[in-house]
TrEMBL record:
UniProt name for this protein: (Fe-S)-binding protein
Pfam families the UniProt entry points to: CCG, Fer4_8
PANTHER family membership: ANAEROBIC GLYCEROL-3-PHOSPHATE DEHYDROGENASE SUBUNIT C (PTHR32479:SF19), GLYCOLATE OXIDASE IRON-SULFUR SUBUNIT (PTHR32479)
Cysteine-rich domain residues: 345-426
Residue ranges constituting the 4Fe-4S ferredoxin-type domain according to the UniProt record: 34-109
Record key words, sorted: 4Fe-4S, Iron, Iron-sulfur, Metal-binding, Repeat
InterPro entries, per database record: 4Fe4S_Fe-S-bd (IPR017896), Cys_rich_dom (IPR004017)
Keyword S-adenosyl-L-methionine appears in the UniProt entry: no
Length: 462
């Protein structure tokens, strides 16, 4: 079996253990599957992220342990098409790649990574559907001028949404996000003029503006840029390399649809563009958890060499960077909120890498902000999962486990959520559009009086 990802870190897993039950096919990938010891910890319905599909259904076959059983059977089979087994396909399709098992399983079963390899293996025998091809190429499609009016038209007319469901399997009941005018014009994120009264010396950082914030939430990128500028940082916007005009992308949409070679190509292009900044010792700061954490996780399995390791060591989410600078007493800005209550929903990947600690720490420094982190699993959107007709009900069931009830319990509270998918699920559920922490902190810095009239104008926009 030719493997698409680098599984060499598992080469010694289970060796010498008579009970490891390593499948006979699949090499180091099989060893990664076999790290599951069948403890059934993934079948717990209490706190934590793992496992949203099991929590929503109560079906053990839809837990990481259940998926491992199907995978072992397929990898032990002499039939090359065993990975196409319908029961295995159903179990893997309902994995939302939340990465909860990697953090919460005692043996750190990485089902999200296993699913990526599984999808790539399936593609050898069965090509992607048109729908999944569209999801995979989304970063490229969003650059097309007609995409924005077409999506807006689809959302406005129910009959078009129904046609889309019949032809492509995209749930008619789920509104699709529409790119902003700003994003559709590929305008780079730049700072708004303001009076920077910080006395901190200029320091250089890199802001990686991902596909989703570039096209859908450009105001988040602007807020982050201005916030960092105000704190005394000179911000480089990670852009295309000198030979291509296509915007940089982490490649996650390809990765999530089993197109590993395309994901690797995008990752290599991003690495090349960021290499000078990494060599100069600059931090790379990101806004979208699923994208920026790919640079710290999935990139290490793409066979990109030492450059990927060096990048992973210099990549932080915005809140992680601010928390780090606050701890080192290098962050000069103070924050003041208008008051009131806020509920915070963390993206699954933030929770999986422990990044919610940084979010809590930074929000605690906002004077007057009364906030609470919602104890929940996956919101259920999970990239394109919640937009798919056959998964729409499961997506809603995941949201109803804890997230939606928490939001209903406090209808007047503001909502903070960094993940683009999470924002869509919450907004589509009728709870209003959540704000990214970048906008919350930028507005709070303005309220603390660090800006001139230009900053006050921005505060009104927020």
């Amino acid at each position: 079996m030719k493997l698409f990802l680098d599984w060499s870190s598992y080469q010694n897993s289970g060796m010498g253990d008579a009970y490891a039950d390593i499948p006979k096919n699949g090499g180091d990938f099989a060893k990664a599957v076999a790290v599951c010891i069948g403890s059934r910890q993934c079948e717990q319905g209490d706190k934590g992220v793992m496992c949203p599909s099991f929590k929503a259904t109560g079906n053990p076959a839809l837990s990481p342990g259940g998926r491992v059983k199907f995978l072992k059977a397929a990898l032990n089979s002499s039939d090359e098409k065993a990975l196409l087994d319908p029961e295995l396909a159903e179990a893997m399709n309902l994995c939302v790649s939340c990465k909860g098992c990697k953090r919460e399983c005692e043996n750190e079963v990485d089902m999200a990574l296993i699913k990526a390899e599984y999808l790539a293996q399936r593609r050898k025998s069965r090509e992607l559907s048109l729908r999944h091809t569209l999801w995979a190429h989304l970063p490229k499609l969003l650059a097309w001028p007609l995409v924005r009016p077409l999506l807006a038209l689809r959302n406005r007319h129910a009959w078009l949404a129904r046609i889309g469901e019949r032809l492509l399997g995209i749930a008619a009941d789920s509104p699709l996000p529409v790119p902003s005018e700003y994003g559709s014009k590929e305008k780079p994120a730049t700072g708004i003029a303001f009076d920077n009264r910080s006395t901190a010396p200029a320091r250089e950082v890199v802001l990686f503006v991902d596909t989703f914030n570039r096209h859908f939430n450009s105001d988040v990128a602007e807020a982050a840029t201005n916030l960092l500028n105000a704190a005394g940082y000179s911000v480089h916007i990670a852009g295309p390399d000198d030979n291509r005009t296509t915007a940089l992308c982490c490649g996650r949409t390809y990765f999530a649809n089993g197109m590993i070679d395309r994901a690797r190509s995008e990752a290599a292009r991003l690495l090349q563009a960021l290499q000078p900044h990494i060599d100069a010792g600059r931090w790379v700061i990101g806004l979208e958890p699923s994208c920026i954490l790919s640079l710290r996780d999935e990139y290490l399995q793409l066979g990109l060499g030492e450059a990927a390791n060096k990048l992973a060591a210099r990549v932080l989410l915005l809140e992680e960077f601010i928390a780090k600078e606050q701890t080192a007493k290098r962050w000069p800005l103070a924050f003041k909120a208008e008051g009131g209550r806020a509920l915070v929903h963390g993206h699954c990947h933030q929770k999986a890498v422990g990044a919610m600690k940084a979010m809590r720490k930074v929000l605690k420094t906002v004077d007057g902000l009364d906030f609470e982190l919602i104890e929940s699993s996956c919101c259920g959107m999970a990239g394109h999962f919640g937009f798919e007709a056959e998964h729409y009900a499961a997506s809603q069931a995941m949201a109803e486990l804890a997230l939606f009830p928490a939001l209903r319990a406090e209808p007047h509270a503001a909502i903070i959520a960094n993940g683009f998918s999470c924002q869509q699920q919450i907004a589509n559920g009728g709870f209003g559009k959540p704000e990214h922490i970048a906008k919350i902190l930028y507005a709070a810095a303005i309220r603390h009086g660090l800006y001139s009239n230009a900053g006050a104008a921005m505060q009104q926009q927020l």
